[in-house]
Amino acid sequence: MTKKKPKQGFCSHNQVVYGMTTVSERGQVVVPANIRRDLDIKTGDRFMVLKRGDNAGITLLKIDKMDELMFKIQQDEEFFKKVSGGENMPTCQDCKHYNPVDEETGNCFGVEVKADMDADDCPAKAFEPK
Ligand code: SF4
After folding, report:
1. Nearby residues of 127 by Cβ (< 8 Å), 6 or more positions away
2. pLDDT (tens digit per residue) in 49-105
3. Candidates 94, 111, 113, 121: which one to mutate for ligand 1, based on the most atoms within 8 Å of Cβ?
4. Which of 123, 114, 124 is nearest to 91 (CA)?
5. Which residue's CA lies nearest to atom 7 of ligand 1?
6. In angstroms, rounded to a whole number, what is the distance separating the alpha carbons of residues 116 and 125?
């Protein structure tokens, strides 16, 4: 009886390069079959086309993955604060009514407040820049 040779495979989990493709006269490119298989890309799938920041090429993002990303962004209040300049929002320590008690807290009209509290959250709505 002959012993069966164990099957061997190729793990593409960390694969980055999938070959080369050429732009046709009509601007079309062929997506190599092996990356279509690995990413489950099918005929009719739609992609968002992004230019890389370093102008080295493009990135194609599956539209259904973009929907997932957009949903996560939609649910993330911190994200909206960051993109709307929330990171630079004035805080109590930027307010003329703030008198420091220590490094983290200060006194405002006799009430202890956090130095890094957003001026938007001011209970008295009395923020005034120093
Ligand atoms: S007035 Fe409002 S923003 Fe200003 S220090 Fe007091 S609590 Fe903070």
Report:
1. 90, 95, 97, 119
2. 999 989 999 999 999 888 888 888 888 877 777 676 656 788 999 999 999 999 999
3. 113
4. 114
5. 122
6. 16
